[in-house]
Design goal:
This protein is an alpha/beta fold. Helices cover about 35% and strands about 20% of the residues. The radius of gyration is 17 Å and the shape is globular.
Length: about 280
């Protein structure tokens, strides 16, 4: 665990063996988790896209010490795009390993081979380390759960509501263990976006199999799964956090995205009381 503590203390240059060691510890911790993991109903902090921005992670680390009774749910998209991708992924892993009972890492659409090859993580890892290490990161990505639920209260995931799902069981029976998203339901959870209009599902300009979900799908899904609030990430909004469907869905972004957004996290206290916390 030495490497975990030294990363949390700010050590930037980690050698390949230390990363491999952390990756294998995290895989051991996560491989038996189900696609949808149960979380508490209160005292939660949701962290949105980080995209290689270490400053955001340091701010989250500060909150981690401040809110000691809270669980931290990371909604995915750790690498790609930003200036410190490997360091960001490593620091998030170190947080997850330091207190596994109050940190949960979920999988975003960027935790896949196809996307990581296009948006930077592949290039960074193979340039600074090796193709072998990149493959070990992919093995870790695929064990990350897709969603979190607090029955009666909250559902959280990176992208959104998938079409053709009417129960948690429908998600649990899918297979996420692949470096990409061959399963359509797993794919949609990582990719779909909300749209504040009265429809169920519609085409989405992000890609052929990506859907937008509207109010009707949201109402149906939250009723079927018996949750009141949904938290997701995946979209950049200048204000960092945006609400949909009369405040029942929060979209959270925790990076600046080259100065386009003001990074935020979402805290859920007791009785589903929400608080938007700026990361600066
Ligand atoms: Mn995303």
């Amino acid at each position: 665990m030495d490497v975990v503590q030294s990363i949390l203390n700010g050590k930037a240059n980690v050698d390949a063996e230390e990363i491999v060691h952390m990756l294998s510890m995290l895989k051991d911790e996560y491989r038996n988790k189900r696609n949808v993991v149960e979380i508490p109903s209160s005292n939660l902090i949701f962290v949105g896209d980080l995209h290689g921005e270490l400053d955001s992670v340091f701010q989250v680390q500060r909150l981690f010490s401040k809110y000691k009774t809270h669980s931290f749910i990371f909604l995915g998209d750790y690498g790609d795009r930003g200036p410190a991708q490997i360091e960001t992924v490593n620091t998030v892993m170190a947080l997850a390993l330091s207190e596994p009972e109050r940190v949960l890492l979920l999988r975003g659409n960027h935790e896949s081979d196809e996307v990581a090859q296009r948006y930077g993580f592949y290039t960074e890892v193979t340039r600074q380390y090796s193709f072998e290490l990149y493959n070990k990161y992919l093995e870790m990505f695929q064990v990350l759960p897709m969603a979190a639920i607090s029955p009666g209260f909250i559902f959280a995931c990176h992208g959104g509501i998938p079409e053709n799902v009417t129960s948690v069981q429908d998600i649990q029976k899918c297979n996420r263990m692949d470096s990409n998203f061959p399963d359509d339901i797993i794919f949609q959870i990582a990719w779909n976006d909300p749209k504040d209009a009265d429809f169920r599902f519609a085409a989405n300009s992000r890609g052929m199999n990506v859907r937008s979900f509207g109010r009707l799908a949201f109402e149906e899904f939250t009723r079927n799964l018996d949750v009141q609030l949904m938290v997701r990430a995946h979209e950049v909004f200048p204000e960092g956090v945006r609400t949909f469907f009369d405040g029942r869905l929060y979209s959270v972004f925790s990076a600046t995205y080259r100065g386009l957004a003001s990074p935020k996290v979402l805290r859920v206290g007791s009785n589903l009381q929400t608080e938007v916390i700026p990361l600066m």
